[in-house]
Amino acid sequence: MRRSEHPLLSSFIVHSAVLCGGTHGNERTGVTCVRRRQGEEPDREPSPDLLPRPQQPETFQLTPVIANPKAVHLNRRYVDFDLNRCFATEDLSCQDWPDYERQRAGVLNQRFGPKGGSDPACQLLIDLHTTTADLGPTVIINEEDLFARLLAAAVQAELPQLRVLSYFAAPGGKALRDTSAGAGAPGGGGPAASHHPGDYPYLAEITTSGIEVEIGPIPQGLVRGDTQIMNERIVNSLVKTVDSWNRDTPLEIPETLLVYRFTGDQDYPRDHRGAITAMIHPDFQGRDFSILAPGDPLFLDFQGNTIPYQGPGGLRPVFINEASYYEKRTAFTLTEEQTLPLVPR
Amino acid sequence: MRRSEHPLLSSFIVHSAVLCGGTHGNERTGVTCVRRRQGEEPDREPSPDLLPRPQQPETFQLTPVIANPKAVHLNRRYVDFDLNRCFATEDLSCQDWPDYERQRAGVLNQRFGPKGGSDPACQLLIDLHTTTADLGPTVIINEEDLFARLLAAAVQAELPQLRVLSYFAAPGGKALRDTSAGAGAPGGGGPAASHHPGDYPYLAEITTSGIEVEIGPIPQGLVRGDTQIMNERIVNSLVKTVDSWNRDTPLEIPETLLVYRFTGDQDYPRDHRGAITAMIHPDFQGRDFSILAPGDPLFLDFQGNTIPYQGPGGLRPVFINEASYYEKRTAFTLTEEQTLPLVPR
């Protein structure tokens, strides 16, 4: 697959891209990756093999940015509101938000977007995240973003253990990821109930194409060597892929991409006051991407009783026991496997 | 070993004890344990085996307490200052601290101590913690606390994988754990430089005897089934041991206790501005309690260079990559093995 052969993207070139870390201030892997690339005196000697040297783009400009500097300084996910839920079009159109993150969203959108614009300042945004769940190396794309599909496939060709999560708007217009239950949660649950179909509130949506890197498990607030190395390998692969694309060099990728598509979130059991009354069952912890069968243990309540799964078969859970999703009323998210073409037929 | 045979503790009986969770507000395991025991309608049916039913004390009163409710509500380690560094005698004697935790320390000390008093309200304090480091199930004691040694040994007899960390004041009066480098760090590093020899600032010091439970690895801000079950098994074992002691029933314990004694903290490499320039080396991550030899990889700097260990041989690191210790300038803590008698000779 090469650019000039793509029926829809043959004239799409990435002139300028942005690499965001610290969108969540306590996810330090992305912060470290960005700071390595912001260094005033870049490392001119080849790095030893263990930690890959930052791949320098040759055909485009890559701007490393700390997305939420105040939260990074405080080592918290956010100050007032989850920054990665601030980019719905309607929210961006409001000029007088009192809170820090929604003001910051406006700044980022102005500088690198604007979202939905015909000629955004950047054509690609790479947003770096981590999770306490056992996702392994993962990227998240909007299925409707055809260039993101190609990027994900190219990274997966280099790092076969990479998995691809996706969200999209169903033909009828209903967003398949049902996060409405969390919309009123502190700091923002899922997209606001009023968001337009396919109008997602994520930072990666403000440029023409976008991709989130998501690696776990890692606790919040720390840097781990293994996570950092994997993060850097993914970013380097993305940079090399964009260079190849811009040069019209063929990408060595298969014809289809397997994605795990979000279908809905599952909350923890709660009492009448809203307090959580159970934890993820020890047999379920870390089973991200495994098929869930009716009757499988899901939760262990604080009396010691096992609560089994009672939903449909064939789905695969992800983000099991993500620390920041307690407030979003999400114990885990269900996905279904889907095979997508890399070139529309 | 039975109480009536102990040369120093034969008349020591625990009438009242306190079980503290949430001393650090984002360590949710202890919070969950305490809330299970605060339940207004205690579970009267036997719990299924997986999550142990809370052992009810039969010879003493056990008060479950959320030590730092404001930090628990905020899901942060602390609001103004690390509560578990607020209990140095001099700090407790000051009545007009402006910050929340030092006020709270005064309240806890009044209610369950006072520290150093001849007749404290509680004779035992169990303080529940977790860590992002790979400690496994661990308890921390003050070596000079002879009853805590017996408690640790009794729990270890039931749970052989349990390890015991200890701190103590050397005969010359110098506290062996050198935490002075962190004394000026935000939220409190180690004990204030002015603390008296053996006068530790930890919550577990305010009653006649005290013990900290410390389990890892677990990210901050979440509850994990495996950690919760282990926490509850340790607490239950402590409760049973105290009942046996009070009743003068023999404790089935060996004659000595192996402890890992704190000898000093190691900071991360930093630049001239104080910014961290390296991470724990991937080969060192999770090697808590393993012997460290000169030349072993310790850090991987952000250029990719390995920084080896250059200190003396024979020591064992713990708290490797604990998230809350970045601000305390502690990448890990070194310990040395020590065999202590359970009955003084």
UniProtKB/TrEMBL annotation, chains A, B:
<comment type="similarity">
    <text>Belongs to the AspA/AstE family. Aspartoacylase subfamily.</text>
</comment>
<feature type="binding site">
    <location>
        <position position="24"/>
    </location>
    <ligand>
        <name>Zn(2+)</name>
    </ligand>
</feature>
<feature type="domain" description="AstE/AspA barrel-sandwich hybrid">
    <location>
        <begin position="256"/>
        <end position="336"/>
    </location>
</feature>
<dbReference type="Pfam" id="PF24827">
    <property type="entry name" value="AstE_AspA_cat"/>
</dbReference>
<keyword id="KW-0862">Zinc</keyword>
<feature type="domain" description="Succinylglutamate desuccinylase/Aspartoacylase catalytic">
    <location>
        <begin position="16"/>
        <end position="216"/>
    </location>
</feature>
<dbReference type="InterPro" id="IPR050178">
    <property type="entry name" value="AspA/AstE_fam"/>
</dbReference>
<feature type="active site" description="Proton donor/acceptor">
    <location>
        <position position="214"/>
    </location>
</feature>
<dbReference type="InterPro" id="IPR055438">
    <property type="entry name" value="AstE_AspA_cat"/>
</dbReference>
<dbReference type="GO" id="GO:0016811">
    <property type="term" value="F:hydrolase activity, acting on carbon-nitrogen (but not peptide) bonds, in linear amides"/>
</dbReference>
<dbReference type="Pfam" id="PF04952">
    <property type="entry name" value="AstE_AspA_hybrid"/>
</dbReference>
<dbReference type="GO" id="GO:0016788">
    <property type="term" value="F:hydrolase activity, acting on ester bonds"/>
</dbReference>
<dbReference type="GO" id="GO:0046872">
    <property type="term" value="F:metal ion binding"/>
</dbReference>
<dbReference type="InterPro" id="IPR007036">
    <property type="entry name" value="Aste_AspA_hybrid_dom"/>
</dbReference>
<feature type="binding site">
    <location>
        <position position="27"/>
    </location>
    <ligand>
        <name>Zn(2+)</name>
    </ligand>
</feature>
<dbReference type="GO" id="GO:0005829">
    <property type="term" value="C:cytosol"/>
</dbReference>
<feature type="compositionally biased region" description="Basic and acidic residues">
    <location>
        <begin position="37"/>
        <end position="47"/>
    </location>
</feature>
<feature type="region of interest" description="Disordered">
    <location>
        <begin position="36"/>
        <end position="56"/>
    </location>
</feature>
<keyword id="KW-0479">Metal-binding</keyword>
<feature type="binding site">
    <location>
        <position position="129"/>
    </location>
    <ligand>
        <name>Zn(2+)</name>
    </ligand>
</feature>
<dbReference type="InterPro" id="IPR016708">
    <property type="entry name" value="Aspartoacylase"/>
</dbReference>
<keyword id="KW-0378">Hydrolase</keyword>
<protein>
    <submittedName>
        <fullName>Aspartoacylase</fullName>
    </submittedName>
</protein>
